[in-house]
Amino acid sequence: MATRNIVLTNHQSEVVDRLVESGRYQNASEVLRTGLRMVEEAESAYLSKMNELREAISHGERDVESGKTRQFTGDEFANYLADRAEHIVKKKTDA
């Protein structure tokens, strides 16, 4: 394994010490490796979500280009959203 020197704030150092003292982790390296795994998972989830959002944007742009759009006034849009929300809630309570 590669060795690295890192600088922690006092608070971060105290957190690592507490976790090791609790017995949940054997040493500081184990705590930091666990933290890095969590960062990797969060980054992976973030990238997946960003890709989903990009695809949704592309889908919306294709719909606009092909004329699959509707125009709403502000009130009509508010009513549309309220109706959709009511439909979703009803669907969940009926399930």
Oligomer: single chain
Element order: H for helix, E for strand: HHH
- Topology, number of strands: 0
If you compute it from the alpha carbons, what radius of gyration comes out, rounded to the nearest whole angstrom? 24 Å
Most strands sheet:
none
The average pLDDT score comes to: 96
Number of helices: 3
Poorly predicted residue ranges: none
Shape, please?
elongated
Structural class: mainly alpha
N-to-C span: 51 Å
Helix content bin: over 70%
Strand content: under 5%
Keywords:
3 helices, mainly alpha
Question: Would you kindly provide a written description of the structure presented here, covering whatever features stand out?
Answer:
- InterPro entries: ParD (IPR022789), ParD_sf (IPR038296), Ribbon_hlx_hlx (IPR010985).
- Pfam families: ParD_antitoxin (PF03693).
- Belongs to the ParD antitoxin family.
- With 95 residues, the protein is mainly α.
- The protein has a domain at 32-94.
- The protein is built from three helices and no strands.
- It has helices at 10-21, 28-65, 74-94.
- The longest helix has 38 residues, at 28-65.
